Amino acid sequence: MKDSWTEIISPKRSLLDINLKELWRYRDLIMLFVRRDFVSQYKQTILGPIWLFVQPLFTTLTFFFVFNQIAKIPTDNIDPILFYLSGITLWNYFSDCFNKTSNTFVANAGIFGKVYFPRLTTPISIVISNLIKLGIQVLLFLAIMVYQIVTKDIQVNVNMHILILPYLILLMAVMGLGLGIIFSALTTKYRDLSFLLTFGIQLLMYATPIIYPLSYTSGKLHAIISMNPLTPIMESFRYAFFSIGSFDWSGLAYTSIFSFGVLFLGIIIFNQVEKSFMDTV
Amino acid sequence: MRNFLNLNPNTEPSTSMEVIKVENLYKQYRLGQVSTGSIAHDLNRWWHTVRGKEDPYEKITGINNREESGSNDYVWALQDINFSVKQGEVLGIIGRNGAGKSTLLKILSKVTSPTKGNIKVKGRIASLLEVGTGFHPELTGRENIFLNGAILGMTKSEIRSKFDEIVAFSGVEKYIDTPVKRYSSGMYVRLAFAVAAHLEPEILIVDEVLAVGDVDFQKKCIGKMKDVSGEGRTVLFVSHNMEAVKGLCQRAVFLEQGKVVKNDSTQNVIDFYLQNNRDLKLSQKFEYSNAPGNEFAKLKSVSLKPKRDDGKPIITVKSELEIELEYWNEFDQVATNLSLHLNSFTGECVFAAITQLPVPILQKGVQRAKCFIPKDLLNTGFYSISIYVVKDTSIPICLFDDLLMFEVEEERDSTYWHGRFPGFVRPKLNFKIIKND
Q: Spelled out in words, what is the top-level CATH class assigned to the domain B2-9+104-276?
């Protein structure tokens, strides 16, 4: 009876003391956060969820004019509109996950300072609510694809690799979440990192085959871009829809190891920081 | 307020099972600019721990005393705290501002972690400090009940089973599907409190929220505390208001400068507090190097002088009081005003006064201010004065707590009344009987 304490509040956790059970107990909270984010984001806008379509379409058109019409960068015989839209759709998901989870602590300092709940619920809910957005944008992509097929007589060879699509999305979510929470932990101490991050994500986009196909690069550049763990995801996605480009299991294996490794590392760091961040924020 | 504060403080807790045990608890804070140069400090600290040496920053720490600190970067907000709470007990935690009460609370509610030592807990802890945390203005009352409940640790099904009760308690049934941004502030607080009140925690922490909010809200808080302790659950009541603590708690812990100075029955703790804090402080002077304050303002001097027609240097109800403050303003071009808080000895704020409007823009350097408290305003008794430096009329940038402490005495030749008047103030009003001749 003497030692039936339900909880012991103590200074530091060991590195691997990650309370996933507690996180699971708070799963309702995660879903309520998702709902809150989605409802609040579109409740008082005139066009509401239509913004979800406008942004990728305009970016696609911009890319089309700048990189295709002016710079004449080839798109591997894929219809340029579909090429860019596919890249942007996936990229947006990754960058949203990364960006928005990366300021978890700073943005939620007010609520974190008052009440305890597993802090990981916040970034996880961000990744999930962006999943809804991604789903809608993938539908947009499919609709545009059908439109292009019907009006422009374009050949699209969707193949069996499309079954791997959910896994590709999972990888992006895992990587975005992992990187995001690493940065969120670091920015509690070193605020200037958030400037670096905005800039870094922008650069990363150009190091990922979004506005150009991997086959367009060669030599050292090709090697560097192949090292980018996002590259196999982009390439696989396009391969599944257009049967053009490369599909490489070893590349995906590399990305998987990288993503889950980053997430694991991220959770460890996050877990250490969440206990004492209120003193530094 | 006193009539509903009767929680029957003399009942003994029903069992002797400990539900909270605080053991050798320490908390260290870093002062000053936290984010600059800390990469270097962190690397240094890391290098020491890697080689198995002691943390180089742990040694140079001062105690939690705002008047004497200044040179050290690190401060112990809590030092060697030990106490335990039994099931069903209502424990008061008292102390001045900055004694470590809120740090202790933060550690208890797991918002931050201790530096050393630990707290063992049996059961769920909830705090009435968290009223309305996470409410989103765009969401409806219904949605916010679920969100807020989940943040406070309830599952969806738990909330659903209590939903009707919560709505009825809050009294906003009609507007439950309206976004809360359309609520009046009263409705908002009622709804928020209703959620917190239905948490049914084993341990409830009540902070000084009682001081804010309207009387209704206070009544509800007290009522809830009564219910909770009546059901054999435990309450921690944190306050610097001795009267409230006396009315509510059987036992109290008195914190001073981050240490437990007294842990005894409430009456003994309050007596101890009163005995040990009777020193008068009528003036203070500092050199720049050891002046209290922060990077925005440093205290140079402060004094309180009675002004009387007969010239006697005594403070009575008939003395006008002149308060003079000098401080080093460390920032240029800041719209500054000062806020003076006069507190009763038991910690309640009697009144607050601010300097003139519009707010002057101040230059760097020594600034002076004077304030007069008219005669025939204060009652007899002990008072303390705190002065806050406020930027842009809203952001307190430097808090000088309990700068002055003084006792107002009875005017000696008054022959009408020999007992003490009730109340904090004793204003002389234009109050006459109009004789019906």
A: alpha beta
Instruction: Indicate if B283-408 has the same CATH topology as B2-9+104-276.
Output: no
Beta-carbon contacts below 8 Å between A and B: 111
B112/A33 CB distance under 8 A: no
Q: What are phi and psi of B75, to 5 degrees?
A: -140, 140
Mutate to test the interface with A, among B142, B151, B236 (most CBs of A within 10 A): B151
CB contact under 8 A, B139 and A39: yes
How do the domains of chain A map onto residue ranges? 34-279
Q: What is the pLDDT of residues B302-333, one digit of tens each?
A: 999 888 888 778 888 888 999 999 999 888 88
Domain ranges, ordered by start, for chain B: 2-9+104-276, 283-408
Q: Which residue of A has its CA nearest to B207?
A: A114
Whole-complex ipTM: 0.82
* Residue B396, min C-alpha distance to chain A (Å): 18
Q: Closest partner residue to B113 among A40, A115, A276, by Cβ?
A: A276
Q: Does A116 touch chain B (CB under 8 A)?
A: yes
Q: Which of B17, B111, B129 sits opposite A278 (nearest CB)?
A: B111
Note down pLDDT in tens along chain A; length 281 residues.
Answer: 456 788 888 886 677 777 788 889 899 999 999 988 888 877 767 677 787 888 899 999 999 999 988 988 888 788 888 899 999 999 999 999 999 999 888 888 888 888 888 889 999 999 999 998 899 899 999 999 888 888 887 777 788 888 889 999 999 999 999 999 999 888 887 777 778 888 899 999 999 998 888 888 888 888 898 899 999 999 899 888 888 877 888 889 999 999 999 999 999 988 888 877 777 65
Chain B (13-42) residues lying within 8 Å, Cβ to Cβ, of chain A: 17, 21, 29-30, 34-35, 38-39, 42
Class for the domain spanning B283-408: mainly beta
Instruction: Give B69's pLDDT tier (boundaries 50, 70, 90).
Output: very low
Which of chain A's residues have a Cβ under 8 Å away from the Cβ of B21? 5
Query: Is the CB of A21 inside 8 Å of chain B's CB atoms?
Result: no
With CA atoms as reference, the chain A residue closest to B42 would be: A189
